[in-house]
Amino acid sequence: MSTFGYFVNLDERGEFYADVRSEDSKTLYEVRSDEDGEIWQIEMGFMADPHDVSGLYDMLVENGVLCADDELLPATEAEAMWETSADTDENEHDDFAHENPLQNAQHSPGM
Questions:
Q1: Does residue 90 lie within any of the structural domains?
Q2: C-alpha angle 50-54-55 in degrees, rounded to nearest 5
Q3: What is the DSSP string of 57-86?
Q4: What values do phi and psi take at 26, rounded to 5?
Q5: Closest C-alpha among 6, 3, 16 to residue 52
Q6: Which of the two residues, 20 and 89, has the higher pLDDT score?
Q7: 27-32 and 3-12: which strand pairing?
Q8: How many domains does the chain have?
Q9: Cβ-based neighbours of 39, under 8 Å, separated by 6 or more
Q10: From the CA atom positions of the chain, what is the Rg in Å?
């Protein structure tokens, strides 16, 4: 399972642009308004509005962009989860380093 974030980059004056990103900031999918301010994902009924993360998730799973066990969250929630995950990973690494007696062992020639 992977967690992805929905980042709204522009939402003003009839223009809209957002993207779905992975934790390593790679864009998997974009949602953009056209020159008339229309968003096809809304016009086709996939999303109720530009901020409909649930509708977007369903569409992306249906089209194979995301897996059913993946998670799509609004940007702030995704970033918080990634930060928590990174902190947990660092703590696990630190715990391992403290428990590993070979990490601080000195290598002597001839041993």
A1: yes
A2: 65
A3: HHHHHHTTSS-TT-EEEEHHHHHHHHHHHH
A4: -90, 130
A5: 6
A6: 20
A7: unpaired
A8: 1
A9: 16, 31, 32, 33, 47, 50
A10: 21
* 110 occurs within a structural domain: no
* Range of the structural domain that residue 22 is part of: 3-97
Q: What is the largest CA-CA distance in the chain?
A: 76
Is position 38 within any domain? yes
Q: Where are the beta strands (DSSP E) in 13-58?
A: 15-21, 27-32
For residues 53 and 72, the answer to whether their CB atoms sit within 8 Å is yes
- Is 109 domain-assigned? no
User: Residue written as tokens 């004056």?
Assistant: 13
pLDDT tens digits, residue range 22-75? 999 999 999 999 999 999 999 999 999 999 999 999 999 999 999 999 999 999
Do 60 and 37 meet the contact criterion of CB atoms below 8 Å apart? no
